[in-house]
Known about the structure:
- The protein is α+β, with helices and mostly antiparallel strands.
- It has one helix spanning 20-70; strands at residues 97-98, 110-113, 128-137, 140-152, 165-173.
- It starts with 19 loop residues before the first helix and ends with a strand.
- The model has no long low-confidence stretch (mean pLDDT 86).
Amino acid sequence: MERKRLYRPFHRPSQAGMSLLETMVALSILLIASVGILTMGALAMSTTENQGHLAARTSEYAQDKMEQLISLTWGDPNSDTTVFPTVASGGTGMTVGGSSDPTAPATGYVDYLDISGQPSSSAANWFYIRVWQISSVPSFPTLKQITVTAKTRTHVGALQGALPQSTLVSLKTSPF
């Protein structure tokens, strides 16, 4: 009777775990990936703060100023709109003039807000600036165009792009 040969495969000793070198390589890869993700997270947070929160605030403050100006009568020459609530005298009212450029504000057509959105008594300690321009519409003598621009003084994070700013334009007609 012929004996069957039993073939036994060659067995290597089982590996009970990972070597220290393999562990260090895996941890290095994980560290590099984590740093990349954390950098993107920090960038996302500053972008959200700048283009979300600060841009929304500039829009809100520009809208507040626009509503204050639209509430004036068409021919009002001297209401002070640099304060809130509006004072009946000492200002420019709906007089044609001003500037919609925050870097070149015109006296009587600018006000400043602190970081919480409250009027700032000092032009040196502002966080938001609001400037407005009132212009006549040449083709229509009973129309005035009101332009309000609100801008922040600074933004969050590294300097990336323009500061958040909002501009609103509206028309006001006589006799309203």
